[in-house]
Structure formats: structure tokens, C-alpha cells
Amino acid sequence: MALTRLATRVEIALLAIWIALAGAVWSFLAIGSEMREGELTAYDRRILEALRLPGQAHQAIGPHWLMECMRDVTALGGMTVLSLVTVLSVIVLAGHGRRLQALVVAVCIPAAQLSSGLFKVFYERPRPSFAIYGDLPASMSFPSGHSTVATATYLVLAVIVSSIETGRAMKVLGFAVAAFLALLIGCSRVYLGVHWPSDVLAGWCLGAAWALVAAVGLRHIGRSPPL
After folding, report:
1. CA R_g for the chain
2. Could you tell me the pTM of the whole model?
């Protein structure tokens, strides 16, 4: 009877993950479709203008220290930091015999980076003209690479923590920290003017989709306890 109840809980949880995955993918595609049709342009521009001094597109509101903080925060979603986090996570997990978890990290996070780059080429959305001088990257804008890969990285690690930890408090803490970092990094991209808000929304959806793929992979392949 206990095994039956456990199997039912696992099946329900897995179904919920699949539904969330479908929702994340659908949301990403819906945002992309609305963006291409120009439905989000006014919304995006209104938010970026609200974050700039009147008549000064390259001057963000707020004190100088806030801008420096946003630059520090956005670095947490940069390629260098996330690559180090990914490599070190794989090494630590493999060293502790968690080969399946290490494989999930090694596959899902680079896949998130690759998908972000491919979608940038597909959508070909130009960057906004609100960037603080010296901050505008050369790549296309949609989706936000920082938001995509940071969300995928930190949520995948939260999924890994949840698959290992038995205490509910640690599971919740892992996801809360991951969500907070993803939210903060995405907001920093908009504040710095290097992305439209809809780029960040799409990045969050795409990154979350890869984290859900990681959760599905762990549940299908491994014998980890339910989230």
C-alpha cells in the first residue's frame, strides 16, 4: 500500500512537471510570436523609458552605486561565471558519485546556451537603444542570453539539490535562491538597457524549460526521491 501511494505521488509529480514544461515552452513561443508582430514594442519601450532620465536615453535613474550594483548582478549571469559554476558542479557531483546529476548539469546548461544563441539568430531582434554607454553587446536581443542561461543554471542546480536532499526546507530554499538570482539578473539586463523586457521574460521561460527537462530526466532515468 505504501509503495502504491509513493508510485502515485511520483506519477502525479512527473505529470505536473510535464505540464509545467509544456507551459514554459508555450509561453516562450507566444512571447516570440507577439514580439514579431510588434505587439510588445510599446510595452517594452514604456518600461525602458521609465528607467531612464527624461530625454536622456543612456542615463539610468537612481544613484551611481545602483548602476554599479546592477553591473555586478548581471555578471552573475555572464558566460564566465556560469561556465565556472557548471564545470565545478559537474566535478563535485561526479566526485561524490552523483554521475546522473553530473550528466544532467553537463547536458542541460550548455543546451540552454545553445538554444538561446539559435533563437537569437532565428528571431533577429535588434538590441534596444537605451543601453548605458559601453554596455551594448553585439549579439541579437531575443531572447536574453543572460536570463536564459542563468535561469537554467541556477534552477537546474536547485533541481539537483532537490533530488539529493530529503528535507523539504532545503528543497524550498534551493528553488527560492535560484528563482531570486534569475529574477535579479533578468531585471539587471533591463535596467542596464541591453535588453527589452520581453527578451528577459522569454529568457526566463526558456531557461525554466531546460530546468524542467532536467527534472524530467532525473525522474525518468534515476531513482531520486520526489521533489
Report:
1. 19
2. 0.87
Q: What is the pLDDT of residues 104-129, one digit of tens each?
A: 999 999 999 999 999 999 998 988 88
The angle at the Cα of 121, spanning 179 to 134, to the nearest 5 degrees, equals 70
Q: Which residue has the cell 555578471?
A: 75
